[in-house]
Amino acid sequence: MADGIIHTEGLTKVYPGADFKAVDGLDLRVRRGEIFGLLGPNGAGKTTTAGMLTTRVIPTSGTALVGGIDVVAHPALAKQLIGVVSQQNTLDRQLTCWENLYFHGRLFGIGAKESRRAATDLLEQFQLGKWADKSVYALSGGMAQRLMVARSILHRPAVLFMDEPTAGLDPQSRLALWELLGELNRAGQTILLTTHYMEEADQLCHRVAIMDRGRMLALDTPAALKATVGADTIVTVRTVGEPAGLAAHFEREVEGTTRVRPVDGGVELHIARADGVVPRVVAAAERGGFHLADLSVSEPTLETVFINLTGKELRD
Ligand SMILES: Nc1ncnc2c1ncn2[C@@H]1O[C@H](COP(=O)(O)OP(=O)(O)O)[C@@H](O)[C@H]1O
Ligand SMILES: [Mg+2]
Q: Considering only Cβ atoms within 10 Å of each terminal Cβ, which end of the chain, N or C, has fewer?
């Protein structure tokens, strides 16, 4: 499928009564075998996009194909091709862990024998074998999520959708989930995830679409997106006292500066020619009579990219 496993054209959603587009003319192509990230702040339209692709939200206009199937015209067919892990715990509390998997298989038209085998195998693969006969009440949050991931792939979906998979997880569980998704992907699973964590998009995703206010602002690999910043070093300078005049001073005095952005108590400099950057910034501060309280050096992140695209920060 040269067009990719997900293909949208002009995909748009206006919720009833709303006077704005929650998703605005999205043209997206997700390739088979990649981990694709939709990155954006709260309200960007990520969940609405995932909702339309998984048949939960009806588009206002535009088209969306998953595995070549039009999700609006053929939702039942499309559902066979997708796996969904939602943010809420959607496990059946009346059933054991094993039964949650088994009945999912049956629901997707898989025979009893094959469903039994898949349920047992997946519990082992996801290190939940010991919990097979336990109630899902017995599971920790991280384990419940693992079971939901196992369930979501039991019918071998062409694409696995995860909406903000690590929101609210502690750092250790977050790393464990990244590891798990990486493994599934290396075994061939195409994954589309939404996130507002730039580190997650950067570390986990092969390609990232940056969204804000329903629109896609950029789409590329994390490395290529960061290269668009046009600077290889970000220096944050904080000064003693009033930073007025600081931005203009550094913009003038530090060679290679591509952008200066005010931050709390100082400025952030984007610098393209990074050799000897610290002495150059310190010398520039001295020439201007500014007293440095703090100086830190980092590389551009997807946060920097987002700021360059929108003028605002990704995290709130
Ligand atoms: N069911 C709904 N009804 C009305 N407005 C909604 C609904 N769901 C989301 N929205 C609005 O659509 C916009 C996009 O929301 P959403 O897709 O949830 O963004 P994200 O997942 O990126 O935070 C927001 O302004 C949100 O308030
Ligand atoms: Mg959301």
A: C
Do the beta carbons of residue 195 and residue 38 sit within 8 Å?
yes
Looking from the CA of residue 163, the nearest atom of ligand 1 is 21
Structure tokens at 74: 């053929």
Tokens, residue 58: 């009806």
Residue of 12, 15, 39, 54 best suited for mutating to test ligand 1, as the one with most atoms within 8 Å of CB: 15
In which residue are the tokens 């600081």 written? 246
Match domain 6-226 to its CATH number in 1.10.10.10, 3.40.50.300, 3.40.50.970, 3.40.50.740: 3.40.50.300
Ligand nearest to the CA of 43: 1
* Digit-coded pLDDT (tens) for 86-106: 888 999 999 999 999 999 999
Q: Which fold has domain 230-299?
A: Alpha-Beta Plaits (3.30.70)
Using most ligand atoms within 8 A of CB, pick from 48, 54, 57, 164 the residue to mutate for ligand 1: 48
Task: Write the pLDDT tens digit of every residue in 118-151.
Answer: 999 999 999 999 999 999 999 998 899 999 999 9
For residue 15, the ligand 1 atom closest to its alpha carbon is 4
Closest residue by CA, ligand 1 atom 8:
48
Q: How many CB atoms lie within 10 A of CB 20?
A: 9
Which sign does the torsion angle of CA 36, 40, 42, 43 carry? Answer: negative
The pTM of this model reads 0.92
Domain boundaries, the chain: 6-226, 230-299
